[in-house]
Amino acid sequence: MGIVLAALALAVAAGCGGGQSSSGPVTLNWYIFPEFSGAFVKSAAACSQASNGAYQIKIQTLPNAADGQRQQMVRRLAADDSSLDILGLDVTWTPEFAEAGWITPWPQDLAQKIRNGTLQTMLDTATWNGKLYSAPFNTNTQLLWYRKDLVPNPPKTWKQMIAMATELSKQGKPHYIEIQGAQYEGYTVWFNTLVASAGGQIVSDDGQKVTLNQSAVQALDTIHQLANSPAVDPSIGNQMEDQTRLQFEAGRAAFELNYPYVYPSAKADVPDIFKNMAWTVYPTVKEGVPTHVTIGGIDLAVGAFSQHKQQAFDAIQCLRSPQNEIRNAVLGGLPPVLESVYNDPKFQKAYPMWQAIFTTLKQASVRPKTPAYQSVSLQISYTLSPPTSVSAKDLGTLKSRIQDAIDSKGLVP
Amino acid sequence: MRLGAVADAGTAISTGRPGRRPITERARAERRLAWLLCAPAVAVMALVAIYPIVYAIYLSFQRYDLRFPDSKSWVGVDNYTTILSSTDLWWQAFGVTVLITVVSVAIELVLGMAVAIVMHRAIFGRGIIRTAVLVPYGIVTVAAAFSWQYAWTPGTGYLAGLLSSTAAPLTHQWQAIAIIILAEVWKTTPFMALLLLAGLSLVPEELLRAAKVDGATAWQRFWRVMVPVMKPAILVALLFRTLDAFRIFDNIYVLTQGSQNTRSVSILDYDQLFTALNLGVGSAMSVLIFLATALIAFAYIKGFGAAAPGQELER
After folding, report:
1. Most exposed of A370, A380, B115, B146 (fewest Cβ within 10 Å)?
2. What CATH fold (topology level) applies to the domain B87-314?
């Protein structure tokens, strides 16, 4: 009887450890957004190869939309799922996942390695309570795109841009300023950029208090001025990144605030517009004060319930190596997080606007860092919708709703 | 359908109400047998339905936010107060839900009755007609909702252009609600028609002929003969559809994601639970939705005398 039990226990143990014992490489599940160029597949294969049989990275493709990605990972993590080894987190999720105990902080020595040569603002997004919880993987930011044939000298400030567009509208020329004003995350990104560029911050560094002040009034005024000028696209209240891109490609706009993907897109879709398409850094709110554009991108973290944390930390370091970062940029169009890569001629060739992006990234701003970020963002885009009715008077409501969101009080819209 | 199971279970014990004559030994034995026969179903229900419901009620009295696991605590009825005092979100969503429920069920009843009569009276091709009518009900709601969404999106859709070349009806509150109702009606009228068809077949042909001989017009025969005989079937159909419509989720989720104040209470609850990860408030809202549907069922059964399936047998 005892022998039978022992044999059974052995069999069970062998069954559980199958494929994970010292005999073969462990499988690391990498949950990441769908990347269609195949750059991530190549990186995963190259890193698995280079690990010399220590691990095999298996890509688990998440849904397209950011909300869907977060929900899928949250549902698994809330159930202590040990199959989440490497997590691709949007820059706004690290505080939430860290506070909930779903991701593992990087050990001191490895954290130092990650910090070396990585863009500071991206490191900010990956840090919570002074600890590095995730490793920046790729980044993104918006530029000002404009029509050379309509605008000989690009504007430096929002005021100048609105004035130029108004002038163009008087001449009956394409004049819209295309910006994301629909009730969604992109609108929060715009508001965050304006507040930061006016010298403010939405939420305190520790994520506890709403800190909107005079700079927020300037941000609200800027939205108000644009939304009530001839420069505004009448459907601003429904515009997301892609609608703004299409309006610019349709030749109705003189300006567009958007991510670099619009450049290859215009090249493929509308050569006529493309030949007059130029870029520069995002306009400022206050003259002489540099603009602080909201940073975007992905950070990679190790799941708290993973059985292979050591291998996962190793794999992440490999996935963000300079070669892989360049491949992601060249094939997938994802701007790297390693400063050194920006000097690489291969990258500069793939990214003609690299200089403007690098300048922008060096002084970029971070969205509110709080575990309740999702609620904060929903409250901002909800309170400020539609843009045409925004005014400085909204500040009080906005402040109290954001504070409620931080304290997880009340309902989210 | 779930409701049917509960009602069936209830039928067996509803004979012995106070004030009636004492039940016989035989009735008692039958009742015992009924209990035994129901026991497996009750056990399964307890496992899969009652436990989650009780757990949700338990959660609803706590501050429990997955993002702040450390600040979990008892808060009494705070979550309920928060929800019920939220005019711009909860009551707004409640109003939209009631509007969608009332309008869509009313349209479905009229259309469903017409379709049922056609199906009932069809002389040839009966099988094909009945199958064809049921097609919308057979299509997965989410798939159907996506095709509506594309149809009403300018650029990709053939319906958006009907209004004007730049119209985006899904981005305006009232137009979007109208489209949601349209999608609901299109989807569930066949279900209504099917339930009513069952009722129609209960109407004895002799009764209609007798009415005809007495000089009743077609309308009088419908209104004075068919409808009264069908009343139990109509009320059951209305009850099922009202409960379903009140819990509307998938059509709105696909068509508007609840933007432009087109949220139903279920969408709002989903946002609290899955976006904000606020289990306390989300559970409290689930309990409120549960109470609202229970109230609807109660009103139908007590107020309008809707018979739960099988109850007629006792009368």
Report:
1. B146
2. MetI-like fold (1.10.3720)
CB contact under 8 A, A74 and B277: yes
The residue ranking higher by pLDDT, B293 or A238, is: B293
A208 has a chain B CB within 8 A of its CB: no
Q: CA nearest A79 in B: which residue?
A: B66
Q: Is residue A375 within 8 angstroms of chain B, CB to CB?
A: yes
Q: Name the minimum distance, in Å, from the CA of A319 to any CA of chain B.
A: 28
Q: Give the residue extent of every domain in chain B.
A: 87-314
Tens of pLDDT, residue by residue over A203-213, are 998 889 999 99
Going from the N-terminus, what domains does chain A have, and what CATH number goes with each?
2-140+296-362 (3.40.190.10), 143-294+372-406 (3.40.190.10)
Q: Which long-range contacts (CB under 8 A, 24 or more apart) does A158-167 make?
A: A158/A222, A158/A225, A158/A226, A158/A283, A158/A284, A158/A285, A159/A225, A160/A283, A161/A231, A161/A255, A161/A283, A162/A225, A162/A226, A162/A229, A162/A231, A164/A254, A165/A229, A165/A230, A165/A231, A165/A254, A165/A255, A166/A229, A166/A230, A166/A231
Instruction: Dump pLDDT digits (tens) for A268-285.
Output: 889 999 999 999 999 999
Give this complex's ipTM. Answer: 0.77
What mean pLDDT comes out for the span B88-105? Answer: 94
Question: What would the pLDDT profile of A74-99 be if each residue is shown by its tens digit?
Answer: 999 988 999 999 999 999 999 999 99
Confidence of residue A22 (pLDDT cuts 50, 70, 90): low
Q: What are phi and psi of A267, to 5 degrees?
A: -60, -40
Separation in Å, CA of A410 to nearest CA in chain B:
6
- Higher pLDDT residue, B194 or B154? B194
User: Is A409 within 8 Å of B82 when comparing Cβ atoms?
Assistant: yes
Out of A100, A371, A374, closest to residue B275 by CB: A374
At B128 the pLDDT is 87
The pTM for the full model equals 0.80
Query: Of B99, B104, B132, which is closest to residue B118 (Cα–Cα)?
Result: B132
Q: Is B281 on the interface with A (CB under 8 A)?
A: yes
Residue A329, pLDDT score: 87
